[in-house]
Automatic annotation (TrEMBL):
This is diguanylate cyclase. It holds the Pfam family GGDEF. Residues 318-451 form the GGDEF domain. Gene3D superfamilies: 3.30.70.270, PAS domain. Transmembrane segments: none annotated. One of its GO terms (biological process) is cell adhesion involved in single-species biofilm formation. One of its GO terms (molecular function) is diguanylate cyclase activity. It comes from the Bacteria.
Amino acid sequence: MHTNSLAAFLELARQLSQASLVIALQQRAADQVVPLRSEPPLSWQRGTAWSWRVPKELSNEAGALQFLCPADLPSMLTVGLTFTAAKVAYLNCLDFGERAEGGVLFVWNASQAPKAATLSSNPLSQQHLIGLLRPIYARLLDARHLAEETIESGAKFHDIFNSVPQGVVVVSGLGQHAQVNQVASGLLNISAGYVPLNTLAQAMRAARMRCDNAADLESVYQALQHSLNAQVTANWELDECIWRVDTHPVLNDAHNGRVWLFQDVTAQIRLERMLRREASHDPLTGLLNRRAFFDLAQAHYQAQNSQDKVAFDSDTSQDLAVLMFDIDYFKKINDRFGHPVGDKVLREVAHRSQAQLREGDVLARYGGEEFIVLLRQANQASSRAVAERLRLAMQSQPVRVGEKVIQIHISVGLALRRNKKEMLASTIERADKNLYLAKREGRNRVVDTID
């Protein structure tokens, strides 16, 4: 393991962890380790073993990073520290590689302790740290076993550098060149290895311009033009993939260089979006569900209360209104034709309703065959007109399912918000009463008479 390879790794480890001190350790026995190098460098006699029992790794990968008591540090380390250790963690690489025996020790002083606390309480950050550093250091340890100290380290480190699943770009402190691994080279469409800095800058900009969210990224990276030490994390939506791009100055000082990390988080982001949609949308119709409607409608009510001129028109004649409607005799449709046909009717009602509403109106499935709409910038006349459009759209043509022809009608209850003090629940209650009255008066009608 060449000194330069290990030094580059420790710089990366310290940057990612924000630790005050990072030490690469090789394990000789269960209670004996040898320090190989630290960042920043500490003075000790090379090859001197420390008596220290390495923490046992838990059965899962997350357990590879363990937070320890500072009192458990090797005594030969604590006597040489220039600060008091406040937080300590150990990343165990034992048996992770082919012959890897050792790990990485992280030490935070009091001022950096909050960084450790944030890391210890965030499983995703821990997984990111483990997933990036553990395979690299394991391979470095393997390389130490397999090669003599005199082996040219450049090619060895490049192999390790290019084997990690994340894209990595390391910009030199002098700002003349950058080192690009294989994943990053494919993403940025440039050669792997050492590239001139202007070539990297052009490739970075070209890749960002190809992103679906290029305009957003342009403003995000303005921070780098104003501060060389800026730390920026952003998602690049590029070629149907989502890359989480992290960039930080090495050791918090751009004069030491800058690291760019590219991680493919497409599956994670898509899963998060799917879960959010499932939590807020009705699976049958694709409309907002009842809970999501309340959250969104309540936000509009509160915004209007504060006279938010961005969200609402300043004309005092324009207010909020609630429409509630359901399908007349829907139970008979289900009983006669079956639930699959009933589901088709519900989807068709949702589709026709969306076609009649304006941009900004909020439509949701309230439950069963009942739907609810929040009308923005509404008055009595315009709200009544929307309700009538909905009613006519339903009866204009039947729903056809195979050879079955189902004529549908709806009853609508309408309530305009009385004043800016009225709560959402009160408006909904009045709309519901009007819906009940519409059904009692014969169905297939709009009622807005309840004060």
